[in-house]
């Protein structure tokens, strides 16, 4: 809450006409500019609480559903991922690109599983794991969506997908992947990624191969 207030106070003071959506406060403020900040002050909360050095601050400036600027900062590793629409993606000021991996059997994938007693789409997630894991070099579940997306952008992961996340978890990361040359699409074509929190991000080359293995049924039964 304190971290989100620091970010909110700074950004709303400098950009009073921008809207705001923050995870911790749940505040959804509509600004006069048509732009809004979407912020997660601590993505990977459980990792942080358990002392696992894999969590991040995620900040995105969006025009509707479209991210225009993005920051994902990993304080534990002092890694700052940034992107601006049409101007590329960077890690600590150096350009980054998605991987050029073209073989699924050599690819490293990441996904997420429902946590904290929330079991929405758990059967879908387990089915995804059962179908993709045997086809790839490995599968990771890191527990910090913003960093998973940043790692796809940096070529550390080849693909990452998840369902039912908040807009604050993914807004900045989506732009990072896109500006690094990757592909991000909704898991369900009739739902926006920010609204549904459900997507597949990849280096582009492996996108269709991974998408064909995922359960894209919206039915929870």
What does this structure look like?
- It is globular and about 50 Å long.
- It has 2 domains: 2-95, Fructose-1,6-Bisphosphatase, subunit A, domain 1 (Fructose-1,6-Bisphosphatase, Chain A, domain 1); 104-211, 3-Layer(aba) Sandwich (D-Maltodextrin-Binding Protein, domain 2), CATH 3.40.190.80.
- It has 7 helices and 13 strands.
- The protein has an 8-stranded mixed sheet with strand order 2-1-3-4-5-6-7-8, sandwiched between helices. A 5-stranded mixed sheet has the order 10-9-11-13-12, with helices on both faces.
- The chain has helices at 2-14, 45-50, 122-132, 145-153, 167-179, 193-196, 207-211, and strands at residues 19-22, 28-29, 35-43, 56-63, 66-74, 79-84, 89-91, 94-95, 108-111, 138-140, 159-162, 183-186, 199-202.
- 28% of the residues lie in helices and 28% in strands.
- A hairpin with a 5-residue loop joins strand 1 (19-22) and strand 2 (28-29).
- It is an alpha+beta fold and 221 residues long.
